[in-house]
Design goal:
Two copies of one chain form a homodimer. Chain A is elongated and about 55 Å long. Chain A folds into two domains: about 140 residues, Nucleoside Triphosphate Pyrophosphohydrolase, CATH 3.90.79.10; about 90 residues, Winged helix-like DNA-binding domain superfamily/Winged helix DNA-binding domain (Arc Repressor Mutant, subunit A, Orthogonal Bundle). By secondary structure, chain A is α+β, with helices and mostly antiparallel strands. The longest helix of chain A is centred in the middle third of the chain and has 18 residues. In chain A, the strands form two sheets. In chain A, strands 1, 2, 3, 4, 5, 6 and 7 form a seven-stranded mixed β-sheet that branches. A two-stranded antiparallel sheet of chain A has the order 8-9. The first copy, chain A, contains five helices and nine strands. Helix content of chain A is about 25%, strand content about 25%. At the A-B interface, strand 1, strand 4, strand 5 and strand 6 of A face strand 1, strand 4, strand 5 and strand 6 of B. The structure holds a DNA duplex.
DNA sequence: CCAAAAGTGTTAATGCTACACCCATGG
DNA sequence: CCATGGGTGTAGCATTAACACTTTTGG
């Protein structure tokens, strides 16, 4: 750590947020259209400079709020990793700390204003190269998706994509969207409801949908993230995605 | 990302390295004794300021070399996470990016010189509170150990603690040291040698040891880390540590 | 009644745990 | 021969994968 080094050089530091959600059974990412150079007109992850006296999470939440209007963090936020500082911004060295947000499909305040236009885009279109992102945001997105995929296997974070109460089928579509696979509804139901400390029956049911009504669940107390505490590996043995 | 924000404030950025190894069946961490304030005389992780024009990994490798004398990275190095910038250095806000190094027990150039004294210390003594580290390095170590524990479950990185060639028993003691558990040698042998794409028989055997000679293995080509590429999840289904 | 989705039962395959047991070396 | 660790076989248990089947709603 801090030693007797020459010039404790300073670096501009930014935070970026990879906000993922599931829209119509498809994994989406929150992107903004850049209004300024560099990469003007290009899609990018929301983010911006860390201000003096600010912490990383604080900055991430603030930037997210500035571009989406959400007041509280609408889901699960965690650090993804740091990138740089070299070779990622044409204007010079910038260190950025990427964050991962798993959230239900929240409305973004878009268009109309003079702010950058924020909207949900299917992750597949970006990873396939159909849409190209500014800076090294494409790599961040890829890393984020990989992280999300593996988190679903052993943690209860799939529920972060759902609201407070959800059906097993809704939770299953989350897994299917993130993993890009189909899962057997019956086996998934057994695993989800049979895992101790994962789901909690609310006693209430859905209504008005086609087919038989489904039971509504919420995250069990043991699986709910206690502020700042590490996420418990509730699914043990893990719920594994099919490989290859 | 970079927007039209007020003053793109700068932060001093450091890198820290949590170097783990296994010495005599016990997980150890590489620590230095601080020669300057703050925390003078206290144990700390090796690390230091990122220099202008430097990248994170470059800085981590350089700092490691300066304090241990190793020329090449002696094992597997990956980013652990970022901490700060607030409330972790009494002198002011400093952002640090912690790195995790899993390596065989390499010799550290210690003592004698005027440099900080570097040596291996049992991880248990630190986590138990017997030894207290400078800054927030205790938390970093805890995070690093947790990361290492979970990596062993599905990745071939346990082998990073061994040399190029090793026996199944040596690999097993790594797992036992990191997880702090005992594993059945026979079942471990089956799982390790039976997992496709994990181990590769060299055809050679150990000699001179007590008991029956053991076959020497190396990491299979498929499991060897291709520079900069993500580590393959070779152990599928994972080799799971006993819970509770 | 029919379609659609929720949820339960059942069976075969797979993988793990816990051992008994044999093999190969040094002393 | 014996102690020590390397390595194989195998039975029982737990979990998963695949799919038949019943339940409960809306149209």
């Amino acid at each position: 750590m801090p030693e007797s080094h020459p010039a404790p050089a300073c670096f501009p530091v930014t935070v970026d947020v990879v906000a993922l959600t599931v829209v119509d059974d498809v994994l989406n990412v929150l992107l903004v259209t850049r209004l300024i150079e560099p990469f003007r007109g290009r899609l990018a992850l929301p983010g911006g400079f860390v201000l003096p006296g600010e912490d990383l999470v604080t900055a991430a939440i603030r930037e997210l709020a500035e571009e989406t209007g959400v007041e509280q963090v609408p889901g699960h936020l965690e650090q993804l990793g740091s990138y740089g500082p070299r070779g990622r911004d044409p204007r010079g060295d910038v260190l950025t700390v990427a964050h991962l947000l798993l959230a239900p499909n929240f409305p973004v305040l878009s268009a109309g204003s003079d702010a950058e236009h924020a909207a949900w885009y299917p992750v597949g279109q970006v990873l396939d190269g159909e849409l190209e992102l500014a800076f090294d945001h494409g790599r961040m997105l890829a890393d984020a998706v990989e992280r999300a995929k593996s988190k679903l296997e052993y943690s209860p974070l799939g529920a972060a994509f759902c609201g407070d109460e959800f059906t097993v089928a809704q939770l299953r579509t989350v897994y299917e969207a993130v993993w890009g696979t189909r899962l057997d509804p019956r086996n998934f139901h057994r695993k989800a409801t049979g895992t101790p400390g994962f789901l909690e029956d609310t006693g209430r049911m859905t209504t008005g949908e086609t087919g038989r009504p489904a039971a509504l669940f919420r995250l069990a107390a043991a699986a709910r993230p206690a502020a700042g505490q590490p996420i418990r590996a509730v699914l043990n043995p893990p719920l594994m995605r099919p490989r290859d």
